[in-house]
Amino acid sequence: MAVELTETSGVPGYEDRIRELVRAEFADSVDRVRTDAMGNVVGTIDGSTDYEVAVAAHMDEIGFMVSHVEGDEGESGFLKLDALGGWDARVLKAQRVTVHTEDEDLPGVIGSPPPHTMDPEERETPPDVEDVAVDLGLPYEEVEDRVSVGDLVTMDQSTELVGETLTGKAMDDRICLYAMLQTAQAIDNPDATIHFCATVQEEVGLRGARALGVDVDPDLAIAMDVTVANDVPEFDEGEHVTRLGEGTAIKLKDGSVITSPKVHRRFKAIAEDEGIDYQLEVLPAGGTDTAGFQHTHGAKPVGALSIPNRYMHTVTEAVHRDDVAATVDLLTAFLEREDGTADYML
């Protein structure tokens, strides 16, 4: 299931294919499923109390929208792109992509000129997304006929086991979506009513979670997302944030939120009681759906679990299988203990 989730395409605002997979997975694990006007999917397990918890993981991946079809009659056609989410254009060169039109999926490549044909200034100048062009290997007339402005583009990459890691595109946030779906299957007869929320448009401003925070209005919200693991040679130890293989990450803060102290302390206490590996996350920048719930419908206690992720926002994102398992174990143990009696007020 994790491979299917990561390899399936779904950019912000167009999460349709992922939404179908999520609804199918929810069918046997929750009491009811609904989809809202933005496309968020909520699978609810009814509890024995009035206390409600929301758990959120986002469905969208970073990608592109076609902004222009470029070329001349009798020559090759190319696509210019507008980014959907935060891309570093340096990782886009010489990559395969898929162009999603209304009628079909087309393979394409983002080319890169041979380095020996570039002058020193060109080689040293960082590219911009606006400089990128998709080559479909087709004449301009055919490209113009088959592709429209507004069509979508995603990276084309398989998901592979590399040693103890799973690597591919869209681990952000499909691996947490997978962990959330696994947790929903593991929960049975909870005290709290639990809303498992597969959210949309996180990569362009936490938009789905902000709407959902109003509609669901939980007593407690828990977000799930990947986090930076800079545990590679070019970074000093103090820049790692998290390390692969050392367990799930209990978030203390990121660029959008400071999690509720009593919530993250409860996560820590349960992990220690259950012997679940964990690490603490202080992420200097970046945001998660945690803030989306905290900013709506009044003050709410919030927490977050993160899965460490190397090479974030590239096509070779990598997560460790033990960290994924620890995240499922800790989230399940936490939710099974939620009955409304824990005091998260400051």
From TrEMBL:
Gene3D superfamilies: Peptidase M42, domain 2, Zn peptidases. Its cofactor is a divalent metal cation. Zn(2+) 1 binds at H58, D172, D225. CDD domains: M42_Frv. InterPro entries: Peptidase_M42, Peptidase_M42_aminopept, Peptidase_M42_dom2. It comes from the Archaea. Binds 2 divalent metal cations per subunit. Residues 104-127 are annotated as: Disordered. The keyword Protease applies. The keyword Ribonucleoprotein does not apply. Keywords: Aminopeptidase, Hydrolase, Metal-binding, Protease. One of its GO terms (molecular function) is metal ion binding. Zn(2+) 2 binds at D172, E203, H313. GO terms for biological process: proteolysis. The active site is at E202 (proton acceptor). Belongs to the peptidase M42 family. This is Cellulase.
